[in-house]
Amino acid sequence: MLPKLISLGYAVPEQAVTQREVFDTLKYPKPFWKLYRDSGIEKRHFWVPLSRIRQLSFQEQQEEYMRGAVELSKKAALGCLDGRHPEAIKCLVFASCTGFAPGPTIGHFLAKELGLSRDTYHTNIASQGCEAGFPGIKRAFDFTSTTKEASLVVTCELASCSYFPELDGKPDPENHYELLRSNAIFADAATAGLVGYDDDPRHPYII
């Protein structure tokens, strides 16, 4: 029998901001408002207060990332577990690319916060961008297939901790306006997925 995706959870920061608020804060020239307006996004949730986005040093960004990633990941994981005992989790996979945590990793801090067993296996996936959830699920699938034990996959991105407003609000055409486009769409959230076995027909097999 193949492992199943049994439960999901997510968490977002309390602060929600509109595209207009972000655009005005970053002080881009008016012609670029069309990119924000036509993005299809009405609001985004940010961990870092919008009023501080332009003020944080790189060190301060990473400190905020550590705090936010642990807090939001814990909320997402608890929502996913939905009352299940944390010690049933034998593998924790954590994926992120918007901050640096050389060690102990966010996954290790999270395991302590959740009360996972000390013999829990850890996998930390970094710098794979938007696709990181897929290798995370694959790692959980492999572990659960082999051991028949439950795995928890957690992803967390805090774009507000990696914002780099461009000088004087002038987009750089040399990188194809990559920073301008990133600043227009990315936000902050954490998600969690429980991989394991059960008899509930509503839960999909991972194939």
What does this structure look like?
With 207 residues, the protein is α/β, with parallel strands linked by helices. It is built from six helices and seven strands. The strands form two sheets. A five-stranded mixed beta sheet has the order 1-7-6-4-5, sandwiched between helices. Strands 2-3 form a two-stranded antiparallel ribbon. Helices cover 33% and strands 22% of the residues. The protein is elongated. It has one domain: Thiolase/Chalcone synthase (Peroxisomal Thiolase, Chain A, domain 1), CATH 3.40.47.
Task: Provide a compact summary of the structure.
The protein is an alpha/beta fold and 207 residues long. It has helices at residues 19-26, 33-37, 58-81, 106-114, 133-147, 178-185; strands at 4-11, 16-18, 43-45, 89-96, 121-126, 150-158, 188-196.
Keywords:
alpha/beta, Peroxisomal Thiolase, Chain A, domain 1, five-stranded mixed beta sheet, two-stranded antiparallel sheet, 6 helices, Chalcone/stilbene synthase N-terminal domain-containing protein, acyltransferase activity, transferring groups other than amino-acyl groups
